[in-house]
């Protein structure tokens, strides 16, 4: 008999769905019994997404609205024209008598900077020279001391002083114009009337819409990570991979089964994140019924409301599934090289940057010329597609390009993983 | 049942197994003895199709390990000391999962699990998650997993490693009971007393090379020693036990 090895017979490498499913079920069962993984894939998306898309805007709305209702202390050095004093202290009321915006309480102080710094007052006013009390009295300067980087000051005392002084200026100007026989329109012969031409969905999507692709892909990554690492490096570490590889299951089926299990876990996580978004939209609408108009506007501006039509939902699901497949393939291809679960974690942790950095760039997507080329970038394309879906600007060709790019990437990485599972130095690397 | 011809495996410049030729027959428990690094695990992984030979051939139950690895994997069961179990699955779930990979029906599987329960004294182990197993419990389920499909060839590599005296006794009794027509068990160990007890014939490997293949009686009479351990050292180095101890 020859001592040279015989050429390997090309046994069928076709994937048998039953085998793939059995490998997947084994990994899924192990994942579903891990409480930490369940927390990461189910509970956290359900809690964090409402927190970001609903809680945060609601909180901001309440803070800002609260500032409007609150009566802040404003220090004054010297004297102010009586009309301005009265305007600053006056409450702005709705026809039903409810307070829309409270005035401020004026207190006399000597050192405006110190009073603000010490927190005795939220803003301080000082007029180096007498301010005009009537139309035609000339001009003057009013120094306003406040912590200008503070959102609280901007939306509270400082904002109120600024608005009141603007209104006071308008009153004096109008008096002067009237005395001259002119009307207020003289100053603004052309008036701008802004009309929002963005689609209704985009108008509703809010300033934090860019967070949706970020959160969704992050939950896909988190969900996929638990299964992928356990099913590859974890199996090597426990010594269970070897027992699987000596069974009649083909290497391609092992990879496909693990990819399926990982993708399903990732999609479960993505599913719960979508449920979180939808629930947030419904709850936001309900909550805004009881809010003041300004708070509701702010909540809306930041958080928006996610409402998807059938086509948009299909686009969202397509983008999410393809992204989940791609992320799962990356994780499996990488983590099979690791000797242990811990080592695999160090390999894949930087992957979250591959989601966070492009997602942050999405804030500036208005500046990007989003042609098909950008949608053809795996993962980033699906982020754009998800953002478009949320804003109601999604188009079928762009979504299809994004999905195709992800699927192509996933296919190539699955081939890499298949090759790695066949390499002795990878499987027995310890 | 097992035909190995000039089998060699190298890793870069290191030769783990060099030109090994041997055969083992149905109805016997065939021992594979040697110190750490002798090439036992490499040889067994080649037979299990986990590794590819650098040269030479091996046939397991008539199937060539290179030409038809899938057929080989259908007829072998493999246990090694480092094999574990998925911590969050029960023993029964592990066994059912593997039975599915061998195409066994649910009724066949349940009947086989009941049989293995009796033979390996699995008891309540079957319905406890593997993460809670002691070493002995784990190894019993690992063995049950390896034989769930009733393989013609059973390969055990340092299977008694870490077992207590009770689990070890169960293992040795189980191995002895595998001696049957149409079956072959390859039992790799460095515990000479185990080989003396269960192996009909044995091969001794050292530094990747085959030193000898013979029955216990054949080895003892050839070396003139009174037990296998002494004969083992005599064959390896021809030196007293104390001097050769470091190679184990």
Q: How would you characterize the overall build of this protein?
A:
The complex is a heterodimer of chains A (430) and B (248). Chain A has 18 helices and six strands. Chain A has 430 residues and is mainly α. A four-stranded mixed beta sheet of chain A has the order 4-1-5-6. In chain A, strands 2-3 form a two-stranded antiparallel ribbon. In chain B, α3 packs across α4. Chains A and B meet through α1 and α9 of A and β1, β4, α2, β6 and α3 of B.
The strand count of chain A comes to: 6
Compute the CA-based radius of gyration of chain B.
18 Å
- Class of chain B in CATH? Alpha Beta
Give the percentage of residues in beta strands of chain A: 5-15%
Order of strands across the biggest sheet of chain B? Answer: 6-7-8-3-9-10
Proportion of strand residues of chain B: 25-35%
- Which architecture of chain B does the CATH hierarchy give at level 2? 3-Layer(aba) Sandwich
Determine the fraction of residues in helical runs of chain A and give it as a percent range. 55-70%
Element pattern of chain A in H and E? HHEHEEEHEEHHHHHHHHHHHHHH
Instruction: Tell me the strand order in the biggest sheet of chain A.
Output: 4-1-5-6
Question: What is the secondary structure topology, with strand pairs?
Answer:
The complex is a heterodimer of chains A (430) and B (248).
Chain A: H1 17-32, H2 35-69, E1 73-77, H3 82-89, E2 92-93, E3 99-101, E4 105-108, H4 112-117, E5 123-126, E6 143-146, H5 151-155, H6 157-179, H7 200-205, H8 211-238, H9 241-245, H10 251-288, H11 293-303, H12 310-335, H13 341-348, H14 351-361, H15 372-375, H16 380-391, H17 396-421, H18 424-427
Parallel strand pairs in A: 1-4, 1-5
Antiparallel strand pairs in A: 2-3, 5-6
Chain B: E1 2-11, E2 14-24, E3 28-33, H1 40-47, E4 55-60, E5 63-64, H2 69-75, E6 76-80, H3 91-101, H4 106-120, H5 135-146, E7 153-157, H6 165-177, E8 184-189, H7 192-198, E9 201-206, E10 209-215, H8 216-223, H9 228-236, H10 241-244
Parallel strand pairs in B: 3-8, 3-9, 6-7, 7-8
Antiparallel strand pairs in B: 1-2, 1-4, 4-5, 9-10
């Amino acid at each position: 008999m020859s001592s040279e090895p015989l050429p390997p017979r090309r046994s069928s490498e076709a994937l048998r769905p039953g085998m793939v499913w059995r490998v997947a079920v084994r990994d899924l069962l192990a994942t579903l019994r891990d409480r930490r993984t369940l927390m990461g894939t189910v509970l956290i998306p359900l809690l964090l997404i409402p927190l970001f898309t609903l809680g945060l805007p609601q909180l901001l709305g309440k803070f800002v609205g609260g500032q409007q209702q609150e009566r802040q202390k404003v220090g004054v050095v010297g004297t102010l024209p009586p009309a301005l004093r009265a305007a600053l202290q006056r409450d702005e009321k709705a026809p039903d008598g409810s307070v829309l915006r409270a005035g401020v309480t004026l207190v006399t102080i000597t050192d405006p900077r110190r009073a603000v710094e010490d927190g005795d007052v939220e803003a301080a006013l000082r007029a180096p020279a007498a301010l005009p009390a009537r139309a035609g009295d000339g001009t003057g300067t009013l120094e306003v001391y406040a912590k200008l980087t503070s959102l609280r000051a901007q939306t509270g005392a400082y904002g109120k002083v600024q608005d009141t002084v603007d209104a006071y200026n308008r009153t004096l100007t109008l008096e002067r114009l009237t005395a001259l026989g002119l009307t207020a329109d003289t100053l603004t012969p052309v008036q701008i009337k802004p009309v929002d031409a963005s689609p209704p969905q985009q108008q509703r999507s809010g300033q934090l819409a860019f967070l949706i692709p970020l959160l969704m892909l992050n939950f896909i990554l988190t969900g996929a990570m638990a299964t992928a690492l356990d099913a590859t490096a974890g199996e090597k570490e426990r010594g269970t991979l070897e027992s699987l590889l000596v069974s009649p299951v083909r290497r391609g089926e092992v990879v496909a089964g693990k990819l399926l299990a990982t993708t399903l876990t990732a999609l479960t996580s993505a599913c719960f994140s979508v449920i979180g978004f939808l629930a947030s939209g419904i709850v936001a609408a309900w909550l805004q019924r009881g809010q003041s108009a300004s708070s509701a506007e702010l909540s809306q501006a930041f958080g928006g409301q996610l409402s998807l039509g059938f086509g948009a939902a299909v686009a969202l699901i397509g983008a999410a599934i393809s992204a989940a497949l791609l992320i799962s393939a990356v994780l499996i291809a990488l983590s099979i090289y690791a000797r242990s679960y811990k080592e695999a974690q160090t390999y894949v942790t930087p992957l979250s940057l591959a989601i966070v950095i492009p997602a942050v760039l999405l804030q500036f997507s208005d500046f990007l010329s989003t042609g098909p080329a950008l949608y053809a970038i795996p993962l980033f394309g699906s982020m754009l597609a998800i953002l478009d879906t949320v804003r109601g600007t999604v188009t079928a060709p762009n979504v299809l390009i994004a999905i195709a790019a992800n699927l192509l990437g996933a296919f190539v990485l699955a081939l890499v993983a298949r090759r790695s599972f066949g390499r002795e130095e990878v499987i027995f690397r310890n | 049942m097992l035909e190995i011809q000039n089998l060699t495996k190298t890793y870069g410049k290191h030769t783990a197994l060099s030109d090994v030729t041997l055969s083992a027959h149905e109805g016997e428990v065939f021992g594979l003895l040697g110190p750490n690094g002798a090439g036992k695990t490499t040889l067994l992984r080649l037979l299990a199709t986990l590794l590819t030979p650098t040269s030479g051939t091996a046939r397991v139950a008539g199937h060539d390990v290179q030409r038809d690895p899938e057929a080989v994997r259908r007829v072998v069961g493999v246990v090694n000391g480092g094999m574990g179990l998925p911590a969050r699955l029960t023993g029964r779930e592990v066994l059912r999962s593997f039975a599915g990979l061998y195409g066994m029906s649910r009724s066949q599987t349940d009947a086989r699990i009941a049989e293995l329960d009796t033979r390996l004294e699995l008891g309540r182990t079957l319905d406890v998650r593997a993460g809670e197993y002691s070493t002995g419990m784990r190894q019993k389920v690992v063995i049950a997993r390896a034989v769930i499909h009733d393989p013609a060839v059973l390969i055990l590599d340092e299977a008694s490693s870490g077992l207590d005296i009770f689990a070890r006794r169960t293992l040795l009794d189980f191995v002895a009971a595998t001696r049957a027509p149409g079956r072959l068990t390859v039992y790799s160990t460095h515990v000479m007393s185990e080989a003396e007890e269960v192996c009909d014939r044995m091969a001794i490997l050292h530094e990747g090379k085959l030193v000898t293949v013979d029955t216990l009686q054949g080895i003892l009479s050839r070396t003139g020693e009174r037990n296998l351990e002494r004969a083992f050292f005599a064959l390896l180095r021809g030196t007293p036990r104390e001097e050769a101890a470091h190679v184990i």
